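Hey Z.,

So I finally got round to the zinc ion thing we talked about over coffee. Here's the setup:
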Amino acid sequence: MKAWRASLLYFPAPAQAQLETDGLLVVGPDAGGRQVVLAVGSYSDLAPRFPGLDVTHLPGRIIAPGFVDMHIHYPQLDVIGSPAEGLLPWLENYTFPHESRFSDVAHNSEAATFFVDELLRHGVTTALAFATSHPESVDALLGEAQRRSLRMIAGKVLQDQNSPDGVRDATQQSLLDTEALITRWHGVDRLGYAITPRFVPSCSEAQLRGAGELAARYADVWIQSHVAENKDEIAWVRELYPQARSYLSVYEQFGLLRPRAVYAHCIHIDDEDRALLRATGTAAAVSPTSNLFLGSGFFDYAAADRAGFLYGLASDVGGGTSFSPFHTMLAAYYVGREGQTKPGVSLKPQQLWWQHTGGAARALGLEGVVGNLLPGCEADFLVLNPQATPLLARKTAQAASLDELLFALIVLGDDRAVEQTVISQAQVA
Ligand code: GUN
Ligand code: ZN
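And the result:
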């Protein structure tokens, strides 16, 4: 057993944060040998219950749950900041050429190490990630995550049509590869597999049908894709499926909506789609920096909350512009302010933080496993320094409430505020 004494940020209830200013976090193995939180609370209450405990004291620091990124592209490290008229030219001119390099083992190995380093430096301890259409890209990413004990879910991209040489796969082989990767990786250590049809235009009907059949056979694997991100993309889907009620309903038709299915964007959807997300237990990955950068549109928070479907925050690197959960939370706040039916919403800092930690974990079906520091949660946590920059120090010193403190971190924070990222007791960054 080991313990940390610092200010502790955690969520006793959904979207309701608590700060224990002089807290104690006690970590140790559970019955299965996983490093989990054994106790969390005030130092004065807890310390007498654990005499002789090895305590690391971090005065002035905040211990917080590791962030959960619900949608990120491992091969798009080098695509960040590539301007385009919109999604489709961005895919064609930048994304597909970059992804075609991931058939190469040496390139994968270098990129996987860099990618995991970057996640940890920014305080992301769980991610749902796209690899590329090359099976070896999944092996590289999940192999690296396994070496670093990271909780990572990833999948080989399915794209057997409307895709150039170098990334286009072959229908039957793509499904065989997916099944082999499920067998190799899903449930191994802290890893999971996600069946990953890129989006409707890039997948033949046979490929989508095969993906749905695999999803039915492997009920606890994840599914990840994109939906209703961009108006040109939607028009294309309407040409491909003129009978479909909506873009989202195409995925429904192939059995690809269910708990543990995560769809990035969900921007241009209607209330019937929202009810479908809710009824099927499907989650949305909200990616505000990507949507602003690619000019895709705005996620409608008020409508999402009215419908009551699951959602959480995501970087969507490399359409997204930053690995930093702080930048993503701030962009989500901007979208709430300006990207909604007037007068817009002022998202609360505790909601934003929840959407990138416990709320994202819940949307992934990992509530009580990651994204929080309640007893039983896996011990992935961050040591945050609220004095990491002069302005952050000045602003946080004046915070008169938890909301003011969290807002200061969201608006002024970045990787400099993440002093350590601790993964199940192994200090890795
Ligand atoms: N739609 C299909 N592929 C992609 C991708 O790589 N990024 C984004 N943002 N949207 C997509
Ligand atoms: Zn994406």
